[in-house]
Write a structure and sequence with these properties.
Elements (H helix, E strand, L loop, with lengths): L6 E2 L3 E4 L6 H8 L2 H4 L9 H18 L3 E6 L7 E6 L12 E6 L8 H16 L5 E4 L20 E4 L1
Parallel strand pairs: 6-7
Antiparallel strand pairs: 1-2, 2-3, 3-4, 4-5
């Protein structure tokens, strides 16, 4: 099974990655405040290219991955949300994590949750997963989206 290539919510288009997303993604990944809780530092252009390639490769390899997030009112790349195998963590390559990253201009507006809800549905209803993992940096206290009641009664586990 695979996830839908595109999902629309009230305010977002969650879509496949396009060639033209590389440059705007690199700008996001170069933002020190945004990257503080993801990699601990901004990424170089070369590192951003590798992240972009990985976003696309996850879809090709597994039939799901992080969608590119595009707010409907702007039509511009604002980050990502979705599912991936956390193969960057030893012993976790077979698990599936839910994750998101949004440009600072979109923080605090409920967009991470809005994108996470269809991600959770796809995980359990389409892909037939039994659980999801969620990771966050221990200093990041903006993690309410990981514990939302609105997901329903699903086994969503998270760790610092």
């Amino acid at each position: 099974m695979s996830a839908p290539f595109e999902v629309r919510t009230e305010r977002l288009l969650l879509r496949q990655w396009r060639d033209e997303d590389g440059e705007p993604l690199a700008r996001l990944l170069a933002d020190p405040e945004l990257m503080r809780y993801i990699r601990g530092r901004p990424l170089s252009d070369r590192e951003a290219d590798a992240v972009f390639a990985r976003r696309r490769e996850q879809w090709e390899r597994y039939g799901f991955g992080f969608w590119a997030v595009e707010p409907l009112r702007t039509g511009r790349l604002a980050g990502w949300v979705g599912l991936q195998h956390p193969d960057w963590m030893a012993g976790m390559a077979e698990e599936v994590e839910i994750g998101w990253m949004l440009a600072r201009a979109h923080w605090g507006k409920g967009l991470a949750t809005e994108g996470a809800v269809p991600s959770v549905r796809v995980a359990f209803e389409t892909l037939g997963l039994e659980r999801l993992l969620g990771f966050h940096h221990p200093d990041n206290r903006r993690v309410r989206v990981l514990t939302r009641e609105s997901y329903g009664r699903v086994p969503l586990e998270y760790a610092e």
